[in-house]
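Final report, Chapter 2: Outcomes

The project's central promise was a pipeline that accepts a single protein chain and returns its three-dimensional structure in a standardized token representation, suitable for archiving and comparison. That pipeline is now operational. To close this chapter, we reproduce one record exactly as it appears in the project archive, with the input sequence first and the structure output second.
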Amino acid sequence: MRTRDGDTTPATGRVNRKKLGDQAEGVAARYLQSKGVRILERNVYNRGGEIDLIGQDAETLVFFEVRFRKRHALTDGAESIGWRKQQKLLRAVSFYLHRNGLWDHPCRIDVVAIAPGTTHQYRIRWIRNAIQAEA
């Protein structure tokens, strides 16, 4: 069932979730740019999976996982990234580095957790080097 503006109802929620995810990624991108990160790519899909944002922080290539949680969610966005999701991100990043010949380039995987704020519109938590590959 669709509403007048074309969104699906909460029963299916796919379009609403995609729209919310895109909005959260936009908020994250603006926040990161305000902190000096240059955003290079958004929503990168490859055989390994999806990478929400790719940016450059000084000389380091940074892959960002963006997580949004509603006001009364039981877990923080960062806490919602389980082992399986971490493995998918590591595969996606490895594939990206391999495809672009960047194996020797310094890089890391960060998480940007976004939630509705109380005094500001959003509460944003940037966790650097949040996900690491085991040697």
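Archive annotation: The chain has one domain: 14-131.
This record, like all others produced under the grant, will remain available to the consortium after the project formally closes.
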